[in-house]
Design goal:
alpha/beta; 19 strands; 719 residues; 17 helices
């Protein structure tokens, strides 16, 4: 089969062409822990919703430099066109809704397109059963149809690796078909960022959202000529620049039809689907960032007080091609700065220098023009001329800042200090200098792979030059950029909301490590670090069916039986399974300094995880009633987010968001009203869950019940 051609981009303007049965509603694992609620142990107290509403209601109105270029109506505004946003749009269009979707880049798909991470992270059993949301299954099928195989590069990290530009094309076609089939309408706004919002007088509803779309100014180079760090601050400014011409849009709910009855609840909904939780910060709803304090529900945390600066590393991916002949390799001027960081990472028994390079190249190989008979040490075809690999390597192009002077995602205090929470002040909430250094680190990593002779973690003898490779850049290259880097970095963690107070979560709902980790936490270090009372609370939380007996008989911690399954949520609207997988921040700044190490203890929660669920409560923010949160910003602790971040999860949570909004618009209720009486029965919640299930989007894994504790076949990694 010949190498696939580059596919066309989406138009750079708005257009119409896209124009488990649980035995009881009371979950035993939600019982209070030694008189202290699960949520109260894991989360610091927050201000009341009433006070918060007063604060938001006093927010000044944004001041624009000129009138809006257009006011756009939609029933659902999706902010962020990544996998979760795409999935939400897909389901909403099939439901016949009018959808607006904004995206900073000009591609849909996030992880698998603009971020270049087209190696699908999947757990073994889920993949064997093809137990996924219908849209995700459609995506996988279309990849296989396009290439004639699901894994055209025979990468060894995944069952499927493919070209980022093709991911954009596939998802665009899926949205167009969903629009036709469902009778909905998609108003697509690429190269568009949200700048501001206005709230209702009581601060409970988003009434309008203001966004800026940028296009190249006359006589300037096309989009994607410069890396993100060079353009991001310009993209968030209202004014035209030497680089960009701007359009200012106002998004609003649909105008009611003549004679229509007034709605009791919201006229429209705004979905947070950005990569870093931009709306979460801009709307100032309660959220957390970074490492959570150690608690009975997050017992593996290495810190006793929150560290908002240590977030998971981000990665600018790039593609490289193996060649017949050596290629000229130009050392970047900044290479010596980052060289002390790069490494093949771990020693491999009997590996030669060529084996190490082959190991990394084939890890995420996206394309191989000819099947190879010769196999490498992993049993995968050896690297050969014409092979194209995408690079995403921890001690390579991962960039892992973790201090107050270099963190990528700015904290609330940092946003206030830079006036980004003032009307008209929002600039994306990221540290531009850290983006730039991440870009340099990635380009330097390519040079290290092909010309480097040092290794920061292994003996230098394992590193030899491999000049028969070239860095792929240009608008026809896999990343679709002149500079060769992905259009946006792969983000593993963003701002994570704190859900609303509910039964067992008086300080706000949160998914935690103990809810689904395979770890039984019986190691001595947990009792030592949590103390007797905290450790007893953890063991009681994990007691499952024996919970009532354990409380009544005051069973000692070491004698409490531990459930061997995930927490079961009565409000589950989607599914997620992947191992708890960390790319920890580095201990000191800057990350690339010689001798730097990963932050000690962050990997302690790393490991296997049970098949888990996506509770609706994790998607409902405090304060704002007509906003739902999807993508990586759902209410999850740092450890939980390390598993709730991969491709199929993003699709499932996006699909759940799309269905939920359609349902509450039909029922004229708010999302929080579906769950506010839990654990008592919620008839509307059950109707929603049934609707999602009937549409081909699972809300629980097969055989999920409080009685099934046999999940040995479901280990996401290994045997």
């Amino acid at each position: 089969m010949s190498r696939p051609r580059r596919t066309a981009m989406i138009k750079a303007r708005p257009f119409k062409a896209i124009t488990c049965l649980i035995a009881s509603s009371l979950t035993l694992s939600s019982l209070p822990l030694s008189g202290l609620s699960a949520g109260a142990q894991a989360i610091a107290p927050q201000s009341s919703s009433a006070n918060a509403s007063q604060e938001l209601a006093q927010r000044p109105q944004p001041i624009l430099p000129r009138p809006f270029d257009a006011t756009v109506e939609c029933e659902i505004l999706i902010v962020g066109g990544g996998l979760a946003g795409t999935a939400a749009a897909y389901e909403s269009l099939l439901s016949g809704r009018t959808v607006c979707m904004t995206e900073l880049t000009d591609w849909v798909g996030g992880q698998i397109s603009s971020q270049g991470t087209t190696a699908l992270d999947e757990s073994r059993k889920q993949r064997q059963l093809l137990f996924y949301s219908r849209g995700y299954l459609d995506l996988r099928n279309r990849v296989e149809q396009l290439y004639g195989k699901l894994n055209p590069g025979e990468c060894w990290v995944s069952a499927s690796c493919f070209m980022p530009y093709d991911a954009n094309k596939i998802l665009t076609n899926m949205l167009q078909e969903a629009e036709r089939r469902g009778g909905g309408e998609l108003k697509w706004f690429p190269s568009t960022v949200v700048k501001d919002l206005t709230l209702s007088p009581d601060g409970r509803l988003i009434e309008t959202v203001i966004a800026i779309q940028h296009t190249p100014a006359p006589g300037t180079p096309p989009l994607n000529t410069e890396p993100l760090s060079a353009i991001i601050e310009d993209a968030y400014r209202y004014e035209d620049s030497a680089r960009f011409t701007k359009q200012i849009f106002q998004f609003v709910p649909p105008t009611p039809a003549a004679g229509a009855e007034a709605r009791r609840a919201a006229d429209w909904y705004v979905l947070e689907a950005t990569e870093t939780g931009e709306l979460v910060a801009l709307a100032d709803v309660p959220y957390e960032l970074g490492l959570d304090p150690r608690s009975p529900l997050n017992p593996s945390s290495p810190v006793t007080e929150r560290d908002p600066y240590c977030t998971q590393g981000f990665t600018y991916t790039f593609a490289m091609e193996n060649t017949e002949e050596p290629q000229p390799q130009q050392m970047p001027a900044f290479y010596p700065t980052y060289e002390p960081y790069y490494s093949y990472e771990n020693p491999r028994q009997n590996f030669t220098p060529a084996d190490y390079f082959d190991f990394v190249f084939t890890y995420r190989r996206l394309w191989s023009p000819n099947p190879q008979e010769q196999r490498n040490v992993l049993g995968s075809p050896r690297t050969s001329p014409g092979d194209i690999s995408m690079q995403n390597w921890t001690w390579g192009n991962d960039y892992r800042p973790g201090t107050a002077v270099d963190n990528l995602i700015l904290t609330h205090d940092q946003l206030e200090a830079t006036n980004q929470l003032e009307p008209g002040g929002w600039r994306g909430g990221l540290r531009t200098e850290t983006l730039r250094r991440g870009e340099e680190n990635a380009i330097g990593y390519y040079y290290w792979l092909v010309a480097g002779t040092t290794d920061s973690r292994l003996d230098d003898s394992v590193k030899e030059p491999f000049p028969n490779n070239r860095y792929l850049q240009g608008f026809d290259a896999p990343m679709g950029t002149a500079h060769g880097l992905s259009k946006y970095p792969y983000i593993r963690e963003g701002r994570r909301i704190i859900g609303r107070p509910s039964y067992g979560y008086e300080s706000g709902f949160m998914i935690s490590e103990a809810d689904f980790s395979w770890n039984d936490f019986t190691q001595e270090r947990y009792e030592e670090s949590l103390g007797p009372i905290g450790y007893l609370s953890l063991r009681r939380y994990l007691s499952g069916l024996s919970a009532i007996q354990v409380f009544e008989q005051q069973t000692p911690a070491e004698q409490i039986p531990i459930r061997t399954r995930s927490r079961i949520y009565p409000d589950s609207v989607g599914i997620a399974q992947y191992a708890i997988d960390f790319h920890p921040c580095m201990a000191d700044a800057p990350p690339e300094q010689p001798g730097n190490i990963e932050r000690p203890g962050v990997r302690d929660a790393h490991g296997q995880a049970y098949p888990a669920q996506i509770p609706l409560r994790a998607m409902i923010p405090q304060k704002i009633d007509n906003m739902l949160v999807s993508s990586k910003s759902i209410a999850a602790s740092y450890s939980a987010a390390a598993a709730y971040r991969v491709h199929s999860f993003e699709w499932s949570v996006g699909a759940a968001a799309g269905h939920t909004v359609d349902f509450v618009l039909n029922q004229d209720v708010y999302p929080y009203e579906l769950v506010d009486n839990l654990p008592a029965p919620e008839p509307l919640l059950e109707a929603l869950r049934q609707e999602i299930t009937d549409s081909g989007n699972p809300v629980m894994f097969p055989d999920t019940s409080i009685f099934n504790e046999d999940w040995n076949e479901w280990r996401p990694w290994g045997g």
